[in-house]
Structures are given as structure tokens and as C-alpha cells.
Amino acid sequence: MKLVLFDLDGVLIDAKKIHFDALNKALGDKYAITEEEHLNFYDGRKTRQKLQMLTDHKGLPREDHDVVYAAKQVYTIELIKKLKPIEEIKLLFQELEDMGYIIGVCSNSIRRTVLTALAKIELMEYCSVIVSNEDVKNSKPHTE
Question: DSSP letter string over the chain?
Fold first, then answer.
């Protein structure tokens, strides 16, 4: 079996910027984080983990977590819907498929985000394996 797995975030799409912008929009000005804070402390973590960190370090009320989480997911999808396919990546996926490779995409994002992104960048049809953070017991940064 020949298999190639791609990370969605930072490889196929610029997910850091999307997640940063969506979170800050959901948080509003009072609890917004800087790019430096995002890169040094929050990047790569699940949204719920980020919210708990914001409660611990910036005083975000715990009762706001569900509202901020839901808003962040909506804003993330809005931003992902603006993505455009990258022809070189589509060509790579076509060539790998023609060579008999099974193609998979893995992500620390929730499944809806992954599926929406793959559809927008026109790679869904090539993917036989899709793994989101909802498909593992221990997500990033755990090695699972």
C-alpha cells in the first residue's frame, strides 16, 4: 500500500491566520490576543483549551466559553469559505492518485472545518482518509 498523509493546517491552507482571526473576532476587543501571544501560547491548541487559558490568564468569564466557542466556529467557516484552490497542490494530488497512492489529510481542526476547507480548495475528491481532532482520543500536542 502506498499512502501519503498531508497536514491541512499550514500545509494545504494557512490555518494559523484563519484560527487567529476567527478567535479574536469571537472574543471581541476586551479579550483579544496578539499575534505574538497566539504563536507563543495558543497556536495548535483546541479552541476549548484556548478559552480555558484565556480564563486563567486574562479573566475571560467561564460562562462565556460556549458563546465564544460557537462564534469562533462560525467565523472560521466564513473565512474558510473564502479560500481558493492552489493549482500546484491540485496537480500534486492528481499525480499522486495517478501513481496509485492513497491520499489522506490530517488536522487538529474539527471535522466540519476540515471538510469545508477540502471542498473549497477542491481536494476532497482525492482524499480517502480524513482525520480531524474529533477522531482521536488525545489531540495535539499529544503524539497520537
Answer: --EEEEETBTTTB-HHHHHHHHHHHHH-TTT---HHHIIIIITTS-HHHHHHHHHHHH---GGGHHHHHHHHHHHHHHHHTT----HHHHHHHHHHHHTT-EEEEE-SS-HHHHHHHHHHTT-GGGEEEEE-GGGSSS-TTS--
